Amino acid sequence: MSGRLFVVGTGPGNPEQTTPEALAAIEASHVFFGYGPYLDRLTLRPDQRRVASDNREELARAKDALHTAASGEKVCVVSGGDPGVFAMAAAVLEALEAGPPAWRQVDLTIVPGITAMLAVAARVGAPLGHDFCAISLSDNLKPWTVIESRLRAVAGAGLVIALYNPISKARPHQLGAAFAILREVLPWSTPVIFGRATGRSDEAISTMTLAEADPTRADMATCVIIGSPETRIVERDGLPPLVYSPRSIGRTP
Amino acid sequence: MSGRLFVVGTGPGNPEQTTPEALAAIEASHVFFGYGPYLDRLTLRPDQRRVASDNREELARAKDALHTAASGEKVCVVSGGDPGVFAMAAAVLEALEAGPPAWRQVDLTIVPGITAMLAVAARVGAPLGHDFCAISLSDNLKPWTVIESRLRAVAGAGLVIALYNPISKARPHQLGAAFAILREVLPWSTPVIFGRATGRSDEAISTMTLAEADPTRADMATCVIIGSPETRIVERDGLPPLVYSPRSIGRTP
């Protein structure tokens, strides 16, 4: 007997940015696995059960969810943002590949969501308007030397960079180290955006240059976007500046 | 007198993936600018007017929209997917920066959407589960040499690659050339996903290896995802394979 497993992204935290598809998956599920603060955003019925776990326990959570679904339950694994971007979908697939054959037969649906960098970008203009990348600064799951060489490669190639997991209590130094590397490669006038808790009541968005970028402005809920050498800041009287990356390079617009 | 300008992303095409925020912006607008097929997806009231234009006329469309909003109208510029990813938000900002000062005072709201790569990724698993980038293959707006060097840099650095605008009638050769470059850098066993019209009635998703990747499978509505050397294919009896990029590299999971 095989149940159903949804892996759902609820978006950055503003309910207006959660898709009807995600809401329908939540409505159809009976057991919910996720990081507590993400589960707290859901409005559940009395017949819907939640199993909260810490945000460093993704693989164990994924196994529990697959096990529960394989036993016939309708299960929902909840991520903020998009589940496929530094979130639960990859953990579920890792567990599925390593687990018993029955887990591969679970009816699996992954429901995309608005990921943080898209929400932050929309708040300030169009910094991701040209080629860009998303890199996690967490070295829990990869060596710092790999992160360092990736930052050099993408900045040197002219891509805009969105940094996920820029900082945590256990990793206070990575973002400052990343800015130091990027200052070796990029003009110090390159725009940097700190986007925290976009669309939520405690939202804080700020734009500055790479020279000014101060890592202590970031926390776990922050997505940091670093422009390319082409990225521009447009000042406005009495309004916050806009930031965008032009669609064209090397040609007269 | 200054109106209002929304730049809205409706997602990949399935109405269930359009956010309430996008629907509210559409509801609040009176004049709609966009590529005809994107405007066709909207259900408009008799008092709402549409101005369709070709998909090679983004800058002219952006100017018209800003001009109309600055004259006091409530205007909506419509993109498929996310407006900040190879879409209208950057064109609006380019026009705004170069235009009359009044355009900077327009009340501007950019509404994010599910961009194609997230929707394609969700259909097959979690290929964007680790560091990744998004690159447009169109050389209408940048030299082909830049595209080539970016492909080499990001593939060499181990990022998963999502290719937007992989091919068009005017540009039939780029995707084949991109695969040829990537075959020099990546293992030929690297998974490649062709995701066409995700979530729409004519959806077509296929997974193969870089060795097998055939550029003629792509059209303008296709987003192509090329894995990193870490990306894995998980076979399932009687079900389509899953594809994911593990969260960790260089460490035993």
TrEMBL record, chains A, B:
Pathway field: Cofactor biosynthesis; adenosylcobalamin biosynthesis
Keywords linked to the UniProt accession: Cobalamin biosynthesis, Methyltransferase, S-adenosyl-L-methionine, Transferase
Matches recorded under InterPro entries: 4pyrrol_Mease, 4pyrrol_Methylase_sf, 4pyrrole_Mease_sub1, 4pyrrole_Mease_sub2, Cbl_synth_CobJ/CibH_dom, Precorrin_MeTrfase
Xref: Gene3D superfamilies: Cobalt-precorrin-4 Transmethylase, Domain 1 (3.40.1010.10), Methyltransferase, Cobalt-precorrin-4 Transmethylase, Domain 2 (3.30.950.10)
Domain Tetrapyrrole methylase stretches: 5-213
Keyword S-adenosyl-L-methionine among UniProt keywords: yes
UniProt keyword annotation of Metal-binding present: no
GO process terms (BP): cobalamin biosynthetic process; methylation
Signal peptide range in chain numbering: none
EC number from the UniProt entry: 2.1.1.131
SUPFAM superfamilies: Tetrapyrrole methylase (SSF53790)
Any one GO molecular function term: precorrin-3B C17-methyltransferase activity
PANTHER family cross-referenced by the UniProt entry: COBALT-FACTOR III C(17)-METHYLTRANSFERASE-RELATED
Name of the protein described by the UniProt record: Precorrin-3B C17-methyltransferase
Lineage: Bacteria, Pseudomonadati, Pseudomonadota, Alphaproteobacteria, Hyphomicrobiales
